[in-house]
Amino acid sequence: MKICVLPGDGIGPEIMAQAVRVLEALRTDGLAFEIEEAKIGGCAVDADGVPLPESTLALARAADAVLLGAVGGPQWDALPREQRPERGLLGIRKALNLFGNLRPAILYPELANASSLKPELVAGLDIMIVRELTGDIYFGQPRGIESRDGERVGFNTMIYSESEIRRIGKVAFDIARKRNRKLCSVDKMNVLECTQLWRDVMIELSADYPDVELSHMLVDNAAMQLVKNPKQFDVVVTGNMFGDILSDEAAMLTGSIGMLPSASLDENNKGMYEPSHGSAPDIAGKGLANPLATILSVAMMLRYTFNQEAAAVRIEKAVKKVLADGLRTGDIYEPGTRKVGTIDMGDAVVAAL
Ligand code: NAI
Ligand code: MG
Known about the structure:
Substrate binds at residues 93, 103, 131, 220. The protein is an alpha/beta fold.
C-alpha cells in the first residue's frame, strides 16, 4: 500500500502525526505500507510559491491513497485566488478525479450531549452521505455575472450526464450493500430537469441491486427530515450542491467537528482521506487539536481503498474505547470527563489498539 501523507497547515501536522502513529502501530500487525510525505496548501506556497507543487501531485498520483490534514490560515488570506491554499485542495481533487465524497455522520454514545438535537432523536445515529463532488452547478458552464437590459444578472448551470450520475450511484449502492441495504436518493425532480434525470438513472441502476431498497426524497423535505427524524436514514446519495448542504447539516447532528472523517474516491477506489474540519488556526501549535477525525480517516482509507475491513474496525473500536474511558480533547470536553491534548489522545488510541 502506497500512502501519500499531506499534513498541510495549522493543526494539520499535529493531527497527522497522531494518525501516522496509529498506522505505524498496525504495521507491527503485518500491514505493509510505504509512506511518502509532501507539502500542500499554505506551507507549499511559502516553500515553492504554489499551493499544489508538481512534485506533490506526482507523489499523490503514484500513491494508492492520500491522507490529508487541512490547509489554510489567515496569513495566506490576502493572496490572489490562484495562490490561495484552498486552491491546492480543489486542484488535487480535480487532478485525481475524486468524484465520490463519503461523509459519515456518526454519533458516539459518549458524546450524545454534544448534539444540537435531543439525545433520544440521535442516540445511535449512523448516516453515510454520498455526495457527488466534481459536477453539478459548481462546475457547469455557462456561468457568470453580466449586464442584460441595463441590470446585472448572475447565472450558473446545473448539469449532470448520465454517466456521471451512474458512477456516483454505483458507489452509493455498493456502500448500501455493505451496510443496511437502504439507500435514499435526494433530488428536486419536481422543478429541476437535471435532477429528474438523476432520479431516472438511480431507478435504472437499482435493477442491478435488487437487494438494496431504494427510496427518493425531495431535497427540501430531506433537510427537514434530517432534523426531525435523522435515524430514518442510512445511506443518502445526492448531487454536489445538495450534498454540500445536507452533509454539513448531518455533521452538526453529531455536534463534534473534531470527530468526523471523510473520503473522496475515484473510479478505482483510489482515494483521498481527510478530517471534515479545517486547519483551526485559533488552536494551531498548542497541542490541543482533536486527532480523532484524522485517525478515523485512516480507518476509512483501510476500508475503502485497501479493503482491510478488520483493521478499519480495530481503529474504530480503539477510538470508542478511549471515549468510553473518558478522554476528551477541548472540542468534546464536558465536566466529569478527562481533558487531554493531541498527543495524549494519540497515545491512548495506540494503547487501545
Ligand atoms: P475550522 O474547521 O478550521 O475551525 C472551526 C472551529 O472548530 C475552530 O474554533 C477550531 O478551533 C475548531 N476545530 C476544528 N477542528 C478541530 C479539531 N480537530 N480539534 C479541536 N477543535 C477543532 O474552520 P474555520 O475556522 O472556518 O477555517 C480555518 C481555516 O481552515 C481557514 O483558512 C479555512 O479556509 C480552512 N479550511 C480548510 C479546510 C480543509 O483543509 N479541508 C476545510 C475548512 C476550512
Ligand atoms: Mg460545505
